[in-house]
Amino acid sequence: MPEYEAVIGLETHIQLNTKSKIFCACSTDSWRAPPNTHICPICTGLPGVLPSLNRRVVEKALIMAAAMNVGEIAPESYLARKNYFYPDLPKGYQISQYDEPLAGNGSFEFPMPDGNLRRISIIKLHIEEDAGKTVYKNSKRLIDFNRCGVPLVEMVTGPDFRSAEEVGQFLIRLRQLLRWLEISDADMERGQLRCDANVSIRERGQQRLNTKTEIKNVNSIANVRDAVQSEIQRQVREVEAGRKIESWTLGWDDDRGALSKMRSKETEADYRYFREPDLLPIQTSSEDWAATVSQLPELPLARRSRFSADYGIPDYDAGVLTEERSLSEFFEAAVAAHGGDPKRVSNWVMNDVLRLIREQDTSAGELGLRPDELAEIIRLVERGTISNSVGKELLTQVQGSDRTPSQIVEEDGLAQVTDFGELSAAAAQILEANPDQVAAYRGGKSGLIGWFVGQMMQESGGQADPKSARKILEQLLEG
Ligand code: ZN
Ligand code: MN
Protein backbone atom coordinates (compact mmCIF):
# COMPACT_ATOMS: atom_id res chain seq x y z
CA MET A 1 0.00 0.00 0.00
CA PRO A 2 1.51 3.36 -1.00
CA GLU A 3 2.02 5.98 1.60
CA TYR A 4 -0.34 8.94 1.29
CA GLU A 5 -0.02 12.50 2.39
CA ALA A 6 -2.79 15.01 2.85
CA VAL A 7 -2.82 18.35 1.07
CA ILE A 8 -5.03 20.87 2.83
CA GLY A 9 -5.75 24.54 2.27
CA LEU A 10 -8.01 26.74 4.36
CA GLU A 11 -10.37 29.54 3.59
CA THR A 12 -11.04 31.45 6.80
CA HIS A 13 -13.60 34.14 7.50
CA ILE A 14 -12.82 36.46 10.37
CA GLN A 15 -15.39 38.85 11.82
CA LEU A 16 -13.74 42.18 12.54
CA ASN A 17 -14.82 43.74 15.84
CA THR A 18 -15.89 47.14 14.57
CA LYS A 19 -18.89 48.78 16.26
CA SER A 20 -20.82 49.32 13.06
CA LYS A 21 -21.25 47.31 9.89
CA ILE A 22 -19.06 47.60 6.82
CA PHE A 23 -21.35 49.76 4.64
CA CYS A 24 -23.90 51.27 7.06
CA ALA A 25 -24.22 52.50 10.64
CA CYS A 26 -26.07 49.43 12.00
CA SER A 27 -24.58 47.77 15.07
CA THR A 28 -22.56 44.59 14.55
CA ASP A 29 -23.48 43.39 18.02
CA SER A 30 -26.10 40.94 16.87
CA TRP A 31 -25.27 37.91 19.01
CA ARG A 32 -28.49 37.10 20.85
CA ALA A 33 -30.12 40.30 19.58
CA PRO A 34 -33.72 39.65 18.49
CA PRO A 35 -33.82 38.78 14.75
CA ASN A 36 -33.96 41.64 12.26
CA THR A 37 -33.40 44.41 14.82
CA HIS A 38 -30.00 45.58 13.56
CA ILE A 39 -30.92 46.30 9.98
CA CYS A 40 -31.50 49.27 7.72
CA PRO A 41 -32.28 49.91 4.02
CA ILE A 42 -28.55 49.71 3.15
CA CYS A 43 -27.69 46.34 4.65
CA THR A 44 -30.95 44.83 3.42
CA GLY A 45 -30.36 46.24 -0.07
CA LEU A 46 -33.51 48.26 -0.63
CA PRO A 47 -33.64 50.09 -3.97
CA GLY A 48 -31.96 53.47 -4.20
CA VAL A 49 -29.58 53.21 -1.26
CA LEU A 50 -25.82 53.76 -1.42
CA PRO A 51 -23.22 52.00 0.70
CA SER A 52 -20.28 53.85 2.23
CA LEU A 53 -17.18 52.04 3.40
CA ASN A 54 -16.39 51.90 7.13
CA ARG A 55 -12.81 53.16 7.46
CA ARG A 56 -12.13 51.08 10.59
CA VAL A 57 -12.73 47.90 8.59
CA VAL A 58 -9.89 48.76 6.23
CA GLU A 59 -7.62 49.76 9.13
CA LYS A 60 -8.19 46.48 10.94
CA ALA A 61 -7.76 44.44 7.78
CA LEU A 62 -4.44 46.20 7.17
CA ILE A 63 -3.32 45.31 10.71
CA MET A 64 -4.22 41.71 9.91
CA ALA A 65 -2.22 41.87 6.67
CA ALA A 66 0.81 43.30 8.48
CA ALA A 67 0.64 40.50 11.04
CA MET A 68 0.53 37.99 8.17
CA ASN A 69 3.88 39.29 6.90
CA VAL A 70 2.40 40.82 3.79
CA GLY A 71 5.20 42.86 2.25
CA GLU A 72 3.37 45.26 0.00
CA ILE A 73 -0.19 46.47 -0.19
CA ALA A 74 -1.84 47.33 -3.47
CA PRO A 75 -2.10 51.15 -3.62
CA GLU A 76 -5.60 50.63 -4.98
CA SER A 77 -7.85 47.68 -4.43
CA TYR A 78 -11.42 47.20 -5.59
CA LEU A 79 -14.69 46.01 -4.20
CA ALA A 80 -16.67 43.63 -6.36
CA ARG A 81 -20.13 42.13 -6.47
CA LYS A 82 -20.38 38.40 -6.08
CA ASN A 83 -23.78 37.53 -7.47
CA TYR A 84 -25.77 34.60 -6.21
CA PHE A 85 -29.25 33.90 -5.01
CA TYR A 86 -29.92 32.82 -1.48
CA PRO A 87 -32.80 33.79 0.82
CA ASP A 88 -30.48 35.28 3.44
CA LEU A 89 -28.77 37.51 0.87
CA PRO A 90 -31.41 40.18 0.25
CA LYS A 91 -29.35 42.19 -2.26
CA GLY A 92 -28.80 39.18 -4.49
CA TYR A 93 -25.07 39.83 -4.31
CA GLN A 94 -22.37 40.06 -1.69
CA ILE A 95 -19.96 42.99 -1.79
CA SER A 96 -16.56 41.36 -1.67
CA GLN A 97 -13.25 41.71 -3.46
CA TYR A 98 -12.13 39.68 -6.44
CA ASP A 99 -9.44 40.57 -8.96
CA GLU A 100 -7.66 43.24 -6.92
CA PRO A 101 -7.89 42.13 -3.27
CA LEU A 102 -6.53 44.22 -0.41
CA ALA A 103 -3.47 42.03 0.18
CA GLY A 104 -1.75 38.89 -0.96
CA ASN A 105 1.50 37.04 -0.60
CA GLY A 106 1.86 36.70 3.13
CA SER A 107 2.75 33.96 5.55
CA PHE A 108 1.97 32.85 9.06
CA GLU A 109 4.39 31.01 11.30
CA PHE A 110 3.19 29.15 14.37
CA PRO A 111 4.53 26.58 16.83
CA MET A 112 3.40 22.95 16.85
CA PRO A 113 3.02 21.24 20.27
CA ASP A 114 6.46 19.60 19.84
CA GLY A 115 8.02 23.07 19.61
CA ASN A 116 8.72 22.95 15.86
CA LEU A 117 7.60 25.91 13.79
CA ARG A 118 5.36 25.62 10.73
CA ARG A 119 5.02 28.29 8.10
CA ILE A 120 1.87 28.50 6.00
CA SER A 121 1.59 30.78 2.99
CA ILE A 122 -1.25 33.28 2.76
CA ILE A 123 -2.39 33.62 -0.83
CA LYS A 124 -4.84 36.45 -0.37
CA LEU A 125 -6.64 38.50 2.18
CA HIS A 126 -9.63 40.67 1.42
CA ILE A 127 -12.59 42.41 3.05
CA GLU A 128 -16.23 41.63 2.44
CA GLU A 129 -19.66 41.74 4.02
CA ASP A 130 -21.36 38.84 5.75
CA ALA A 131 -24.73 37.46 4.65
CA GLY A 132 -27.73 36.86 6.89
CA LYS A 133 -28.61 33.72 8.76
CA THR A 134 -31.16 31.08 7.89
CA VAL A 135 -32.70 29.13 10.75
CA TYR A 136 -34.73 25.97 10.16
CA LYS A 137 -37.60 25.56 12.59
CA ASN A 138 -40.70 23.35 12.41
CA SER A 139 -39.99 22.71 8.72
CA LYS A 140 -39.96 26.46 8.08
CA ARG A 141 -37.10 28.68 7.04
CA LEU A 142 -36.67 31.75 9.23
CA ILE A 143 -34.40 34.52 8.07
CA ASP A 144 -32.41 36.89 10.27
CA PHE A 145 -30.72 39.79 8.47
CA ASN A 146 -28.80 41.05 11.53
CA ARG A 147 -25.57 39.64 10.18
CA CYS A 148 -25.97 41.20 6.73
CA GLY A 149 -23.14 43.69 6.30
CA VAL A 150 -21.11 42.54 9.30
CA PRO A 151 -17.47 43.08 8.26
CA LEU A 152 -15.33 40.07 7.44
CA VAL A 153 -11.79 39.43 6.39
CA GLU A 154 -11.53 36.44 4.10
CA MET A 155 -8.10 34.87 4.19
CA VAL A 156 -7.01 32.04 1.92
CA THR A 157 -3.97 29.90 2.70
CA GLY A 158 -1.86 27.91 0.29
CA PRO A 159 -2.38 24.11 0.15
CA ASP A 160 0.38 23.83 2.73
CA PHE A 161 -1.09 21.79 5.57
CA ARG A 162 -0.16 18.10 5.71
CA SER A 163 -2.29 16.95 8.63
CA ALA A 164 -5.46 17.67 10.57
CA GLU A 165 -3.26 18.41 13.59
CA GLU A 166 -1.53 21.24 11.71
CA VAL A 167 -4.89 22.71 10.75
CA GLY A 168 -5.99 22.63 14.40
CA GLN A 169 -2.81 24.33 15.61
CA PHE A 170 -3.06 26.98 12.90
CA LEU A 171 -6.58 27.87 14.02
CA ILE A 172 -5.57 27.96 17.69
CA ARG A 173 -2.71 30.33 16.89
CA LEU A 174 -4.77 32.42 14.48
CA ARG A 175 -7.42 32.89 17.17
CA GLN A 176 -4.72 33.86 19.68
CA LEU A 177 -3.28 36.40 17.23
CA LEU A 178 -6.65 37.98 16.39
CA ARG A 179 -7.39 38.54 20.07
CA TRP A 180 -3.83 39.75 20.68
CA LEU A 181 -4.27 42.35 17.94
CA GLU A 182 -7.74 43.20 19.25
CA ILE A 183 -9.23 43.10 15.77
CA SER A 184 -11.63 40.19 16.32
CA ASP A 185 -13.06 38.30 19.28
CA ALA A 186 -12.56 35.18 17.14
CA ASP A 187 -15.20 33.13 18.93
CA MET A 188 -15.90 30.20 16.61
CA GLU A 189 -19.15 29.27 18.28
CA ARG A 190 -20.46 32.74 17.56
CA GLY A 191 -19.35 32.52 13.95
CA GLN A 192 -16.63 35.15 14.41
CA LEU A 193 -14.01 32.79 13.07
CA ARG A 194 -15.13 30.37 10.38
CA CYS A 195 -13.14 27.93 8.39
CA ASP A 196 -13.67 25.89 5.23
CA ALA A 197 -11.06 23.27 4.43
CA ASN A 198 -10.06 21.95 1.00
CA VAL A 199 -8.78 18.43 1.36
CA SER A 200 -7.06 16.12 -1.11
CA ILE A 201 -4.53 13.33 -0.82
CA ARG A 202 -1.63 12.15 -2.96
CA GLU A 203 1.10 9.57 -2.79
CA ARG A 204 3.95 10.90 -0.74
CA GLY A 205 6.64 12.49 -2.89
CA GLN A 206 4.25 13.58 -5.65
CA GLN A 207 3.85 17.25 -6.41
CA ARG A 208 0.57 17.44 -8.28
CA LEU A 209 -2.70 18.42 -6.65
CA ASN A 210 -5.50 15.86 -6.93
CA THR A 211 -9.23 16.46 -6.89
CA LYS A 212 -10.23 18.06 -3.60
CA THR A 213 -13.33 18.14 -1.51
CA GLU A 214 -14.46 21.13 0.48
CA ILE A 215 -15.57 20.90 4.09
CA LYS A 216 -17.85 23.73 5.16
CA ASN A 217 -19.60 25.09 8.24
CA VAL A 218 -17.66 23.58 11.08
CA ASN A 219 -18.09 25.49 14.32
CA SER A 220 -15.19 24.57 16.58
CA ILE A 221 -11.50 23.90 16.23
CA ALA A 222 -11.87 20.36 17.55
CA ASN A 223 -14.58 19.67 14.97
CA VAL A 224 -12.47 21.07 12.12
CA ARG A 225 -9.68 18.74 13.17
CA ASP A 226 -12.04 15.75 13.37
CA ALA A 227 -13.73 16.59 10.07
CA VAL A 228 -10.44 16.95 8.19
CA GLN A 229 -9.07 13.77 9.74
CA SER A 230 -12.12 11.72 8.82
CA GLU A 231 -12.11 13.13 5.26
CA ILE A 232 -8.42 12.19 4.80
CA GLN A 233 -9.24 8.67 5.93
CA ARG A 234 -12.27 8.46 3.65
CA GLN A 235 -10.24 9.54 0.65
CA VAL A 236 -7.54 6.97 1.39
CA ARG A 237 -10.21 4.26 1.59
CA GLU A 238 -11.75 5.39 -1.72
CA VAL A 239 -8.42 5.45 -3.55
CA GLU A 240 -7.42 2.11 -2.09
CA ALA A 241 -10.70 0.65 -3.35
CA GLY A 242 -9.89 1.94 -6.82
CA ARG A 243 -12.53 4.65 -6.82
CA LYS A 244 -12.14 8.26 -7.89
CA ILE A 245 -12.41 11.21 -5.53
CA GLU A 246 -15.21 13.49 -6.67
CA SER A 247 -15.23 17.19 -5.95
CA TRP A 248 -17.91 17.24 -3.29
CA THR A 249 -18.89 19.87 -0.79
CA LEU A 250 -19.19 18.29 2.62
CA GLY A 251 -20.81 19.52 5.82
CA TRP A 252 -20.04 18.46 9.36
CA ASP A 253 -22.89 17.06 11.39
CA ASP A 254 -22.16 18.01 14.97
CA ASP A 255 -24.55 15.49 16.51
CA ARG A 256 -23.35 12.50 14.55
CA GLY A 257 -19.71 13.62 14.44
CA ALA A 258 -19.62 12.78 10.74
CA LEU A 259 -19.40 14.41 7.31
CA SER A 260 -22.29 14.53 4.90
CA LYS A 261 -22.59 15.60 1.29
CA MET A 262 -24.05 19.04 0.59
CA ARG A 263 -25.25 20.84 -2.53
CA SER A 264 -22.80 20.89 -5.41
CA LYS A 265 -20.84 24.10 -5.51
CA GLU A 266 -21.06 26.98 -7.96
CA THR A 267 -17.99 27.54 -10.06
CA GLU A 268 -16.41 30.96 -10.05
CA ALA A 269 -17.98 31.90 -13.38
CA ASP A 270 -21.44 31.38 -11.88
CA TYR A 271 -20.89 34.35 -9.59
CA ARG A 272 -20.59 36.83 -12.47
CA TYR A 273 -18.18 39.01 -10.49
CA PHE A 274 -17.96 42.63 -11.49
CA ARG A 275 -16.56 45.75 -9.86
CA GLU A 276 -18.89 47.43 -7.37
CA PRO A 277 -20.12 50.57 -9.15
CA ASP A 278 -21.32 52.33 -5.97
CA LEU A 279 -17.99 52.37 -4.13
CA LEU A 280 -14.66 54.00 -4.89
CA PRO A 281 -11.45 51.97 -4.92
CA ILE A 282 -9.75 51.51 -1.55
CA GLN A 283 -6.59 53.56 -1.56
CA THR A 284 -3.73 52.75 0.77
CA SER A 285 -0.78 55.13 0.67
CA SER A 286 2.68 53.74 1.31
CA GLU A 287 2.83 56.02 4.39
CA ASP A 288 -0.34 54.50 5.85
CA TRP A 289 0.96 51.02 5.22
CA ALA A 290 4.37 51.80 6.74
CA ALA A 291 2.63 53.24 9.81
CA THR A 292 0.48 50.11 10.18
CA VAL A 293 3.54 47.86 10.00
CA SER A 294 5.55 49.94 12.46
CA GLN A 295 2.68 50.17 14.96
CA LEU A 296 2.15 46.44 15.04
CA PRO A 297 2.70 45.20 18.61
CA GLU A 298 5.25 42.51 19.36
CA LEU A 299 3.51 39.28 18.30
CA PRO A 300 3.04 36.18 20.48
CA LEU A 301 5.80 34.09 18.90
CA ALA A 302 8.40 36.87 19.12
CA ARG A 303 7.41 37.67 22.69
CA ARG A 304 7.67 34.02 23.61
CA SER A 305 11.28 33.77 22.36
CA ARG A 306 12.17 37.05 24.03
CA PHE A 307 10.76 35.88 27.36
CA SER A 308 12.89 32.72 27.36
CA ALA A 309 15.98 34.64 26.24
CA ASP A 310 15.66 37.72 28.45
CA TYR A 311 14.28 36.17 31.62
CA GLY A 312 15.90 32.75 31.43
CA ILE A 313 12.57 31.01 32.00
CA PRO A 314 11.77 27.61 30.40
CA ASP A 315 10.19 27.69 26.95
CA TYR A 316 7.09 26.07 28.45
CA ASP A 317 6.66 29.00 30.85
CA ALA A 318 7.24 31.49 28.04
CA GLY A 319 4.54 29.75 26.00
CA VAL A 320 1.96 29.85 28.81
CA LEU A 321 2.77 33.45 29.70
CA THR A 322 2.30 34.61 26.11
CA GLU A 323 -0.99 32.77 25.51
CA GLU A 324 -2.77 36.05 26.00
CA ARG A 325 -1.46 39.57 25.61
CA SER A 326 -2.58 41.10 28.92
CA LEU A 327 -1.13 38.10 30.79
CA SER A 328 2.25 38.58 29.10
CA GLU A 329 2.15 42.28 30.00
CA PHE A 330 1.18 41.45 33.58
CA PHE A 331 4.11 39.06 33.90
CA GLU A 332 6.60 41.51 32.49
CA ALA A 333 5.44 44.33 34.76
CA ALA A 334 5.54 42.00 37.80
CA VAL A 335 9.11 40.93 37.00
CA ALA A 336 10.16 44.58 36.75
CA ALA A 337 8.46 45.44 40.06
CA HIS A 338 9.88 42.38 41.81
CA GLY A 339 13.44 42.85 40.64
CA GLY A 340 14.46 39.30 41.63
CA ASP A 341 14.37 35.88 40.02
CA PRO A 342 11.93 35.96 37.04
CA LYS A 343 11.32 32.21 37.40
CA ARG A 344 9.85 32.82 40.83
CA VAL A 345 7.48 35.42 39.39
CA SER A 346 6.66 33.05 36.55
CA ASN A 347 5.70 30.32 39.05
CA TRP A 348 3.33 32.65 40.87
CA VAL A 349 1.76 33.89 37.66
CA MET A 350 1.39 30.43 36.09
CA ASN A 351 0.05 28.71 39.21
CA ASP A 352 -1.79 31.26 41.28
CA VAL A 353 -2.64 34.21 39.07
CA LEU A 354 -3.79 31.94 36.23
CA ARG A 355 -5.92 29.93 38.65
CA LEU A 356 -7.65 33.15 39.77
CA ILE A 357 -8.14 34.21 36.16
CA ARG A 358 -9.80 30.88 35.36
CA GLU A 359 -11.89 30.73 38.51
CA GLN A 360 -13.14 34.25 37.96
CA ASP A 361 -13.45 33.84 34.19
CA THR A 362 -11.58 37.06 33.51
CA SER A 363 -8.26 38.20 32.05
CA ALA A 364 -5.03 39.45 33.60
CA GLY A 365 -5.94 42.95 32.46
CA GLU A 366 -9.23 42.88 34.36
CA LEU A 367 -8.22 40.90 37.40
CA GLY A 368 -8.14 43.83 39.84
CA LEU A 369 -4.72 42.65 41.03
CA ARG A 370 -1.86 44.82 39.87
CA PRO A 371 1.54 43.40 38.88
CA ASP A 372 3.29 45.48 41.55
CA GLU A 373 0.94 44.07 44.19
CA LEU A 374 1.86 40.54 43.14
CA ALA A 375 5.54 41.50 43.32
CA GLU A 376 5.05 42.84 46.84
CA ILE A 377 3.32 39.63 47.96
CA ILE A 378 6.16 37.54 46.54
CA ARG A 379 8.70 39.68 48.39
CA LEU A 380 6.78 39.34 51.68
CA VAL A 381 6.93 35.56 51.28
CA GLU A 382 10.59 35.60 50.31
CA ARG A 383 11.49 37.66 53.37
CA GLY A 384 9.61 35.24 55.59
CA THR A 385 7.20 37.94 56.76
CA ILE A 386 4.27 35.77 55.69
CA SER A 387 3.96 32.10 54.89
CA ASN A 388 3.42 30.83 51.38
CA SER A 389 -0.20 29.95 52.09
CA VAL A 390 -0.98 33.38 53.53
CA GLY A 391 0.63 34.85 50.41
CA LYS A 392 -1.77 32.91 48.21
CA GLU A 393 -4.76 34.06 50.23
CA LEU A 394 -3.53 37.64 49.99
CA LEU A 395 -3.97 37.55 46.20
CA THR A 396 -7.74 37.54 46.51
CA GLN A 397 -7.75 39.93 49.47
CA VAL A 398 -5.80 42.49 47.48
CA GLN A 399 -8.24 42.27 44.55
CA GLY A 400 -10.34 45.38 44.57
CA SER A 401 -8.95 46.52 47.94
CA ASP A 402 -7.36 49.93 48.31
CA ARG A 403 -4.92 48.58 50.92
CA THR A 404 -1.47 47.39 49.87
CA PRO A 405 -0.44 43.80 50.64
CA SER A 406 1.87 45.06 53.42
CA GLN A 407 -0.95 47.08 54.98
CA ILE A 408 -3.25 44.06 54.94
CA VAL A 409 -0.57 41.90 56.56
CA GLU A 410 0.04 44.46 59.28
CA GLU A 411 -3.54 45.53 59.98
CA ASP A 412 -5.01 42.02 59.89
CA GLY A 413 -2.12 40.45 61.84
CA LEU A 414 -1.19 37.96 59.16
CA ALA A 415 2.56 38.00 59.75
CA GLN A 416 4.15 34.65 60.28
CA VAL A 417 4.59 33.58 63.91
CA THR A 418 8.27 33.01 64.57
CA ASP A 419 8.08 33.93 68.22
CA PHE A 420 9.71 31.10 70.17
CA GLY A 421 7.50 31.32 73.24
CA GLU A 422 4.27 31.39 71.26
CA LEU A 423 5.28 28.47 69.06
CA SER A 424 6.52 26.39 72.03
CA ALA A 425 3.25 26.79 73.85
CA ALA A 426 1.30 25.72 70.78
CA ALA A 427 3.63 22.75 70.21
CA ALA A 428 3.27 21.59 73.83
CA GLN A 429 -0.51 21.66 73.46
CA ILE A 430 -0.40 19.55 70.34
CA LEU A 431 1.83 16.96 72.01
CA GLU A 432 -0.49 16.80 74.99
CA ALA A 433 -3.56 16.30 72.81
CA ASN A 434 -2.00 13.49 70.77
CA PRO A 435 -0.30 11.01 73.14
CA ASP A 436 -0.58 8.10 70.66
CA GLN A 437 1.33 9.92 67.93
CA VAL A 438 3.92 11.08 70.47
CA ALA A 439 4.48 7.49 71.60
CA ALA A 440 4.72 6.30 68.00
CA TYR A 441 7.25 9.00 67.15
CA ARG A 442 9.35 8.17 70.19
CA GLY A 443 9.07 4.49 69.28
CA GLY A 444 10.90 5.20 66.00
CA LYS A 445 8.29 6.55 63.54
CA SER A 446 10.25 9.75 62.99
CA GLY A 447 8.33 10.37 59.74
CA LEU A 448 5.45 11.57 61.90
CA ILE A 449 7.23 14.91 62.28
CA GLY A 450 5.49 16.08 59.10
CA TRP A 451 2.13 15.30 60.65
CA PHE A 452 2.99 17.33 63.78
CA VAL A 453 4.10 20.29 61.64
CA GLY A 454 0.83 19.99 59.74
CA GLN A 455 -1.11 20.18 63.02
CA MET A 456 0.80 23.31 63.97
CA MET A 457 0.09 24.94 60.64
CA GLN A 458 -3.58 24.09 60.93
CA GLU A 459 -3.86 25.37 64.50
CA SER A 460 -2.19 28.63 63.54
CA GLY A 461 -4.27 29.13 60.42
CA GLY A 462 -1.14 28.89 58.28
CA GLN A 463 0.65 31.60 60.21
CA ALA A 464 3.26 29.51 62.02
CA ASP A 465 6.65 29.61 60.36
CA PRO A 466 7.01 25.94 59.35
CA LYS A 467 10.79 25.87 59.80
CA SER A 468 10.73 27.18 63.37
CA ALA A 469 7.72 24.99 64.14
CA ARG A 470 9.59 21.91 63.01
CA LYS A 471 12.64 22.74 65.07
CA ILE A 472 10.61 23.32 68.23
CA LEU A 473 8.54 20.14 67.74
CA GLU A 474 11.68 18.06 67.25
CA GLN A 475 13.16 19.46 70.44
CA LEU A 476 10.05 18.72 72.45
CA LEU A 477 9.54 15.24 71.00
CA GLU A 478 13.11 14.23 71.53
CA GLY A 479 13.50 15.90 74.90
ZN1 ZN B 1 -27.65 48.56 8.08
MN1 MN C 1 -16.00 34.90 1.48
Major beta-sheet overview? 8 strands, mixed
The hetero compounds bound to this protein are: zinc ion, manganese (II) ion
Give the count of structural domains: 3
Strand order of the largest sheet: 5-6-9-1-10-11-12-13
Number of strands: 15
Structural class: alpha+beta
The 3D shape can be described as elongated
Rg calculated over all Cα atoms:
30 Å
Q: Helix amount, in percent?
A: 25-40%
Strand content: 15-25%
Gap from first CA to last CA: 78 Å
Mean pLDDT: 93
Helical segment count: 15
Give the oligomeric state of the chains in this entry, treating copies of one chain as homo and distinct chains as hetero: single chain
| Strand/helix succession | EHEEEEEEEEHEEHEEEEHHHHHHHHHHHH
Low-confidence stretches: none
Describe the SSE topology.
Blueprint: E1 4-15, H1 55-67, E2 76-77, E3 80-83, E4 93-96, E5 103-111, E6 117-129, E7 133-137, E8 140-144, E9 151-157, H2 164-180, E10 193-203, E11 213-218, H3 221-240, E12 249-253, E13 258-261, E14 274-275, E15 282-283, H4 286-294, H5 300-311, H6 315-321, H7 325-338, H8 342-359, H9 371-382, H10 388-398, H11 405-411, H12 420-433, H13 435-442, H14 449-459, H15 466-478
Helix pairs in contact: 2-3, 5-6, 7-8, 7-9, 9-10, 12-14, 12-15, 14-15
The chain binds zinc ion and manganese (II) ion (MN).
